[in-house]
């Protein structure tokens, strides 16, 4: 078994004692931990790098561990991690400083660079030896197994990771953007939400599960009487084709395409039954089933996964996509209530500011209903007499057009609202929209030029998204890439404003974050505390209730 403190890297002729002394006087260090598994965060050991050339390994039972901990506890020493959220969890019981830290992974994420450490190093010009670069834990194995079999490998890997983390940080710092600090500053908010979870109404969870199980069983048996299993795309495609429906092939051309968009356009009882079955089955397996038998719901917030900057969550459930009617199972803690802030139309407000569209900005400044404003300015009521439906079409246009939606998208989205539009009508409304919101029109054109000419876009705070040059060079995929990139500055800016609100109110008990909504337990920050996070107004609707599903707005 290797010694309790080992040095690995290019450290010249210095002795271990000299290196430990250098380590104790460093003002910035790279840090990496090795644990039993990703899930079991029991620490095997850690490495600290005082420079990008070498690092010192400390076994968890090392008599020198106090040196490592004195460095990690020192607020005057900057600790650079690569995924600090994970490492903070690993080091939770060691009382380390959690204020003076940086994260090379988060910085790479905001710059749209490779996030895996070895890939990032190679991208920036420093490749680790192949035995480390190609390493992966065998299926069913663990890092603890690797440690028991080859401890030298594990300590060397940990030292390489700590030193490379610091090297990458130094390389990335000149490209620093404000988005990095926004993302870094929510790390502890996310850890708090993961730790606390949300109380569940288990009786309601059981009722939902039983209801969904009965519905899916009935629908599956009904569909099977039509000669196909709804769980088999191949059988569904064949059954619809036999009924005379012409379906496109999948990309592999091995079977007929029966995805949701394709089937939704088929006016056939079998197709609609399959759609309903799929929806119910997804609700059952994705949301109800994982919560059976639990008193609290926990999730893992992914802070470096969504390229636009939005948060996502997983394991065991995705809190970002909980259906509204299922939200009633999530409760405030006993004796408390839930408080919810919803940033009204923040993405439209963001694009109005980014585009400097005077008409839309004025409407927001004057407190106008932007969808009614669009309805009136485009003269939609002359086409649709029902004001409620006309406003729905205006809302469809607001969100479709500002996300590069063409006529087909407008027609499809209007159809979901029960509005039938012809393609010429969609073209007419789109033209009227650009004649009304000239700033939006010019922004659309300028962003398309930015993407095609330079291959990247940024949010208001500097987050970068780059176009895939291979997909951009392909005429068949170029338009899809342009749409993906166009959406990013708007959605990314909105998500960054929400994150700034989260970081401003860390003393409050935040339990759920879903896109534009913040849900607190027990008490919530004042609206004034969360204002001024952006150079445009971000009014917040405040709601309160005992469950996430019965929140009532406070006016």
């Amino acid at each position: 078994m290797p010694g309790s403190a080992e040095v690995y890297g290019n450290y010249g002729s210095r002795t271990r004692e000299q290196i430990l002394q250098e380590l104790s006087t460093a003002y910035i260090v790279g840090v990496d931990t090795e644990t039993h598994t990703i899930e079991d965060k029991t620490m095997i050991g850690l490495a600290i790098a005082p420079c990008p050339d070498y690092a010192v390994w400390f076994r968890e039972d090392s008599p020198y561990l106090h040196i490592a901990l004195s460095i990690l506890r020192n607020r005057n020493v900057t600790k650079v991690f690569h995924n600090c959220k994970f490492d903070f969890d690993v080091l939770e019981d060691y009382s380390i400083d959690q204020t003076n830290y940086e994260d090379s992974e988060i910085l790479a994420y905001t710059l749209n660079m490779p996030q895996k450490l070895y890939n990032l190093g190679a991208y920036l010009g420093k490749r680790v030896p192949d035995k480390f670069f190609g390493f992966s834990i065998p299926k069913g194995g663990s890092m603890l197994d690797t440690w028991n079999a080859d401890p030298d490998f594990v300590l060397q890997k940990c030292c390489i990771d700590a030193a490379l983390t610091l090297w990458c940080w130094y390389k990335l710092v000149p490209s620093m953007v404000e988005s990095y600090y926004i993302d870094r500053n929510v790390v502890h908010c996310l850890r708090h939400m993961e730790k606390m979870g949300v109380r569940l109404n288990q009786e309601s969870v059981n009722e939902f599960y039983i209801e969904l199980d009965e519905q899916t069983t009935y629908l599956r048996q009904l569909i099977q009487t039509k000669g196909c299993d709804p769980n088999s795309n191949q059988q569904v495609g064949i059954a619809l084709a036999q009924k005379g429906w012409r379906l496109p092939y999948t990309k592999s051309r091995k079977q007929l395409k029966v995805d949701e968009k394709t089937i939704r356009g088929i006016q056939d009882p079998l197709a609609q039954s399959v759609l309903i079955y799929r929806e119910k089955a997804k609700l059952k397996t994705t949301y109800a089933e994982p919560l059976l038998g639990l008193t609290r719901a926990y999730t893992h917030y992914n802070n470096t996964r969504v390229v636009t900057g939005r948060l996502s969550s997983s394991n065991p459930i995705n809190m970002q996509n909980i259906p509204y009617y299922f939200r009633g199972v999530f409760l405030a803690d006993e004796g408390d209530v839930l408080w919810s802030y919803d940033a009204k139309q923040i993405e439209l407000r963001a694009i109005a500011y980014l585009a400097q569209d005077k008409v839309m900005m004025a409407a927001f400044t004057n407190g106008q209903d932007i969808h009614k404003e669009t309805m009136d300015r485009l003269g939609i009521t002359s086409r649709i007499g029902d004001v409620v439906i006309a406003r729905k079409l205006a809302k469809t246009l607001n969100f479709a057009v500002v996300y590069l939606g063409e006529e087909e998208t407008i027609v499809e989205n209007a159809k979901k609202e029960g509005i039938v539009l012809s393609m010429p009508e969609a073209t007419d409304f789109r033209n009227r929209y650009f004649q009304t919101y000239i700033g939006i029109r010019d922004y659309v054109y300028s962003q398309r030029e930015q993407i095609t000419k330079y291959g990247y876009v940024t949010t208001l705070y500097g987050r970068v998204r780059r176009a895939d040059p291979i997909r951009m060079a392909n005429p068949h995929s170029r338009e899809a890439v342009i749409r993906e990139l166009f959406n990013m500055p708007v959605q990314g800016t909105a998500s960054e404003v929400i994150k700034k609100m989260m970081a401003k109110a860390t003393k409050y008990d935040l339990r759920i974050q879903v896109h534009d909504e913040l849900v607190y337990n027990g008490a919530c920050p004042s609206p004034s505390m969360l204002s001024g996070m952006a150079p445009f107004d971000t009014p917040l609707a405040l709601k309160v209730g005992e469950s996430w599903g019965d929140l009532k707005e406070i006016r």
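DSSP finds 23 helices and 18 strands in the chain. Residues 198-297 form a domain with the Taq DNA Polymerase; Chain T, domain 4 fold (CATH 1.20.1060.10).
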